[in-house]
Amino acid sequence: MRQRRGVVALDVGGTKIACGLVLTDGSVEYSRTVPTSRESPDSVSEQIVVLATQAIEHAPRDVVTAAVGFVVPGWVNHADRTVWAPNVAGWDHIPLEQLLKERLPLPIALDSDRSGYVRGETWLGAARGLKDVVFLAVGTGIGAGIMADGHVLHGHNDLAGAVGWMALNPTFSGLYAQVGCFEAEASGSAVGRKGAVRLADDQARAGDGWSAQRVLQAAVDGESRATEIIDEVAVYLGMAIANLVSTLDPEMVVLGGGLFQAGEYLAGRVRREFVRWCQPFAARRVRIELSALGERAGLIGAARIAMNSFL
Predict the structure, then answer these.
(1) Is this model's pTM higher than 0.90 or not?
(2) What is the pLDDT of residues 192-216, one digit of tens each?
(3) Is residue 301 left, alpha or beta, with left meaning phi > 0 and alpha meaning psi from -120 to 50?
């Protein structure tokens, strides 16, 4: 029997953990997604161990499982092998890699989710085969996976891609000190917050039930105040992408994360704003595309990271 090779991949998020057995051709033999525990750091680590073990056990007889790769939403410090992920309970500079090595029988590759996104899209997604790519992830927060000449940039302190801190407004707000200017103005959280203030029936109901998706749908439905919010957010997104393109000169910028589930409704506005701000030659040559992998970008990227490390 001819043997196939694969890896276990996990995309760990603040709300859910996706796990899959991914083969070297990119096919997913097995997958499972569970809500992320909010009890303790140990409970999340236990979830990862259980999911990875189940994936290994579900491998077909002709598949050799070579490694485990996973990505997390935060700061993966490769120097001291720790993880800081504020959206995961208790993950405050914990030695996650060592904890998992003690529980899992396979070698482990660990990186940030933004690195996983750009790895996934350049392997099997919208940027397949390209070497100079930025993946801009806009969800609850904002981050970017940056690939230059085929190499993912991590930076001296493994903080490259923390673009939510990009300064785009000269009028400083206290919220900027907590999450960064770009994230405070254009993330999914920002859209929901602006909707709660501007779209509430009255001030007494401010904050009642408004989410980014609800604001987006209201804008699509023609609600003028919601449209104003989305247009404002598109300006910040266009400016930020222009800064990234003018600085890095990528072949493509891939737009992903929950906010871009609105598809071309938002992406079209962002492209128009981007052109106003970007270096003209770079602007004419770069492509700005929606993610082709969607919610699977992190999982596929985690698999690719493991394969690059151990296959």
Answers:
(1) yes
(2) 999 999 997 644 444 557 899 999 9
(3) alpha
